[in-house]
Amino acid sequence: MELKAVIFDVFGTTLRIAEGAHPYRKLMRAGIKQGRRPRPEDASILMSGAYGLMEAADLFGIEVSPPELDRLDALLRAEVASIEPYTDAVLCIAALKAAGLKVGICSNLALPYGDAVTRHFPDLDAYGFSFEAGVLKPDRRIYESVLQAMGVGAGATWMVGDSQRCDQLGPEEVGIKGHLLQRAGGELADLMQFGEVALRAVDR
């Protein structure tokens, strides 16, 4: 089937955090000091709903003073402001859109980080954020929501990202062809290489 759309992962694929401050992690550590035991599902819960720092503190029963909340919020704002795109992501997405392909995003992330995606890539065809979808990759529903927003079928869509579980195997369960990006060195080491392969698929 002819390639009509490409879905990109976010962190590690299209965007990177230049100055990581980890405000949510610091919040959870405050909870540990108060006697709250971390749970395996904590991160998934944070990324599956509209939880800013204050909402997360309330959700997990963590007491945070107003000055400390202000400090964490300042760290969060600085971290989000430091997020920048990979150059190859900007070039690849521009080339795919110029070729007439639809382009979407599918990512597991907490609410405040969505602004960085739309700031750097404001004109994509679909944004599949876990905090809006209510489910995380590799749940098939988040991929299906992106396909629906783009108006394309799974068989005409590729996905690329740096997680084999979430960006290759998960999409393939839905019928999307997944591609594993390995920036540290691998068969697919950058998005310009991926873009060339995708454009050849369009030209067939």
Walk me through this protein's architecture.
By secondary structure, the chain is an alpha/beta fold. It has two domains: 5-16 and 84-203, HAD superfamily/HAD-like (Rossmann fold), CATH 3.40.50; 23-82. The protein has ten helices and seven strands. The strands form two sheets. Strands 5-4-1-6-7 form a five-stranded parallel sheet. A two-stranded antiparallel sheet has the order 2-3. Helix 9 links the parallel strand 6 (157-161) and strand 7 (177-180). Helix 1 (23-33) packs parallel to helix 3, helix 1 packs antiparallel against helix 4 and helix 5 (87-98) packs parallel to helix 10 (191-203). The protein is elongated, with a radius of gyration of 18 Å. One of its GO terms (molecular function) is hydrolase activity. It comes from Pseudomonas veronii 1YdBTEX2. Pfam families: Hydrolase. Keywords: Hydrolase. InterPro entries: HAD-like_sf, HAD-SF_hydro_IA, HAD_sf, S-2-haloacid_dehalogenase.
